[in-house]
TrEMBL record:
Pfam families (UniProt xref): Na_H_Exchanger
One term under GO cellular component: plasma membrane
Protein name, per record: Sodium:proton antiporter
One of the protein's GO biological processes: proton transmembrane transport
Entry superkingdom: Archaea
Gene3D superfamilies: 1.20.1530.20
Listed InterPro entries: Cation/H_exchanger_TM, Na+/solute_symporter_sf
Amino acid sequence: MSIHVDLELIALIAAIVGFGVTAQFLAAKYRVPSVLFLIVAGVAVGPEGLGIITAETFGGALSTIVGVSVAIIVFEGSFRLEAEIVRNAPRAVELLITGGAAITFVGTGLTVRFLLGLGWDIAFLIGALLVATGPTVITPILAVVPVREDVATTLEVEGIVNDVTAAILAIVIFKAMTAIELSPRGYVFLFIERLGMGIVTGFVTAGVVWYLLTQVDLPAQEVPQAARLLTLAGAVIAFAIADSVFSEAGIAAAATAGFTLGNIDLPHRESILRFNQDVTLLVLSFVFITLAALLEFSAILALGGAGIAVVAVLMLVLRPLVVFVSTIGSRFSFRERVFVSFVGPRGIIPASVATLFAIRLQTSTPPSDPASADILLGTVFLVILVTDVIEAGFARRIAVVLGVTSADDR
């Protein structure tokens, strides 16, 4: 029986990897972000399709697998960010990750509160989750939509930073919901301790990796492989250490380790970068297909017109408002501001963390709130589904129409 189950699981993983590689191939051929094909593949093999993948397929290990996968994805995105580019990035980046994120958080919370009639706690929990865009969805878009460096950097930095802060903010709000007493100062402390733990762990891990690669003598032929494997191990170890102390601190640790290692003098940096990109491609395919397979259309359909109204407000009101306010006086043209307004898809972080929260709300006593859990999951997945399909699917076409792609790529 065990051998049979193991063979089934191996075949399933092989199928997911196959779907993922096929999605990347189709994305390259048709110049459409791979996210679109990955979502379609996930829905096809999930309970709403062939039923090959269900919530029980990976047992209780799914959240751990997704967590480690997200750490690798965030690490790779951070590793590619050059400090010089970030320093010289337009002021819009700073505004998007501070004031813009705050507007998105509050605006989403109020929208969910009044359109779906949820309590303030669940409404702002959803608001925190939906702040993040993230490298899991931005990177595939930028891979097929070549835009000016300032525009690309703005979208990448916003995605990486907001992925980290949104996840930590959501955890803080969720803990506040389940705490008997928590003062306003307690909210700030919970946030700072997780962010601080992640940053310190990331710096220390990066320092250890740097020391091993530059100060320890290895045979010349072994150095390139050691460099690739050590940096990947650093991403996973930094995540594991920080997350074992404070939940969601691991994402900040992976991002910090990636950015630090990407901006110091490492041997075989280009080889490391290419290896990280290949690994990320496979990991991205796995998590997107797996989580898309967990979409429950019944929870989404139960939201009705109010759910569609929430998505419309987020896409057509809040996102453009945040972008245009954040880019006042910037070097962005009007057409580029419109394009950035259009590119605000949500990705793996909201999906994975929302799934974790929903399970805890359904099973914990007290508090046990299965109705709120269903609405939480339905709202988050509806926003992810619509923004990914529309914004990722049409990003290249919109960029061409607006004339913001490079001249030789139109």
